[in-house]
Amino acid sequence: MRKIKDGLVALSLANLCFVKVGFDLLSDRNRYFNKLPVTTSTLLALVVNLLGLALLMWLVMQALRRFPNRLLHLTVHLLFFCSLLLPLDFIRIKFFNITDYQIFQYLKHPASLFCEVVLLVFLCWQHRLAAKTLAVFVGILSPLAVFTLVKIALVCLGVFPLQSCPIDPVPPPMSPVHAGQPRVIWIIFDEMDYRVTFEKPAAGFQFPEFEKLRHESLSATGAKAPADLTDTSMPALILGRRLSAVDADDACDLTITFADTGDTTTWRGHPSVFSEARKLGFNTALVGWFLPYSRELGDVLNFCEWYPYPPFEPARAETFSGELWQQIDSLTETVHLRRLFLNIHVASLQASLPLVTNAAYGLTLLHLPAPHRPGIYLPDQDKFTAVGMAHMSKVTAYFDNLVLADRELGKLRRAMETSGQWDKTWVILSADHSWRESKLYDGQRDYRVPYLIKPPGSPREINQPGSLGRATGPISRGKTASADYTRPFNTVLTHDLILAILRGEVTDGQNVAPWLDAHGEPSSPIISHGID
Q: Contact at 8 Å (CB) between 405 and 188?
């Protein structure tokens, strides 16, 4: 009976350790944002990890009963206490939305440090009593482990099937490329803020690539995104219509509500900048993250690669061994998610470089994750990091990631220059929303986003102000000149601007300001409800 009780405690503790993985795989929450489906292989990997960890813990418990060494017991008990931090961390994220930055700041407070020392001393002094008490509590929760295993079995048998989506649409065949046809590279940096990038950056931070592009572009000083959240703003930008609400309850399609008519429908199948570009005979490509672009737009994209938001898909892989490792690695929680984030940064840039240098694509959208949290970049060392963030504030993390975005732009530019595409391409750079936590920086929140439009050709060819607009130029900024466009507008017009370029209605930099005057609507209220 004692061994059976030990087994229940071990199984319950293993289940608590993998609670985040189980929640991700067995609930239908946020299914829309998943890229890899939950398969029988995925669930069997979880069973192997659960039973394997439970067996290891049971063997350790049997060893403790045979060997009364005090140091051994103290070490194992401290590891037991640490393992209970995993379910507490799950509760922190899922129910209280307390960030790791807040935890770090709290733990560094003198009063917190004192309490931590007192608690550690008590646990070391009374580790046997504390371990027995907590083991009883863990044993009481053992029915949750049984429930998890039973649900896995029922899902694998098809009794309780999880939501799944059909295979992504097949990309259309490439269209022939005609000499002299226009080409647009549309770059969206996630959460890039106009004010803190160009007007009030933090001391010690410089963004030479953004400034260099600004020197060659028409730069809007009053542009605002359609919404304050990615899942609302990006569909609006692509569709060219502002949205008042989105709903991701359907695993296969995003429910959207148009702000102008109030009509509610789904995203897939609606005319977009990509479908219209395809009708004009242009090839299209997209590299992005967060949203399932291939599912929504795959039938009008010749190339598409997207990466899921790590907190929504923390423990999946394409192979059984990969699933085993991802689930184990996810026990580190914050470090694991940061590692997934930095992998997305590396992969998205690698996927983008061949596209920006390939003249076969007439319209390419790059929705890149920087400078979106979390902080995963060390500018001074020019390297990524998934650890060592305890000293970093959200403000420092944001600006470090903004440096990363600046350097990614530099790599894209140099690749285009080397291939001879830079002077042949329109480059439109903006953001899906501004920095939502900028009040932590200086107490201010500014909804403006960057909006840079660089036409093809020599920088000096773009500097004439529009005859109707409020563009001021040429303005000397170093060796080149540029123009500022001061009239406020909503960046949802990017859809129409890109199509005007592809149709040949906007042919050079002199046409841009007059076109903005004629088509730009006043900046509208920011929609701020959604997922992220």
A: no
Helix (H, G, I), strand (E, B) or coil at 217: coil
Nearest to 386 by CA among 396, 375, 394: 375
Alpha carbons 93 and 336: distance in angstroms, whole number: 14
Which regions of the chain are under pLDDT 70?
Answer: 388-391, 458-482, 522-532
Beta-carbon neighbour count of residue 317 at 10 Å? Answer: 16
d(CA 410, CA 381): 17
pTM attached to this predicted model: 0.90
Taking a C-beta distance cutoff of 8 angstroms, is the pair 425, 184 a contact? Answer: yes
**φ, ψ dihedrals at 97, nearest 5°:** 55, 40
Q: In the beta sheet, which residues pair with residue 187?
A: 366, 429
With beta carbons less than 8 A apart as the criterion, state whether 141 and 16 touch: yes
List all residues 6 or more positions away from 474 whose beta carbon is below 8 Å from its beta carbon. Answer: 460, 463, 464, 481, 482, 483
Instruction: Give the SS3 label for residue 301.
Output: coil
How far is Cα 344 from Cα 460, in angstroms, rounded to an integer? 36
- Dump pLDDT digits (tens) for 427-474: 999 999 999 999 999 999 999 999 999 999 865 544 444 333 444 544
- What torsion, rounded to 10 degrees, do the Cα atoms 357, 360, 363, 364 define? -40
SS3 (DSSP) at 123: helix
Q: For residue 245, give the 3-state DSSP assignment.
A: strand
CA distance 205 to 531: 30
Check whether the bond before 173 is cis (ω within 30° of 0).
no
Pick from 334, 308, 471, 467: nearest CA to 390: 334
Q: What is the pLDDT of residues 254-294, one digit of tens each?
A: 999 999 999 999 999 899 999 999 999 999 999 999 999 99
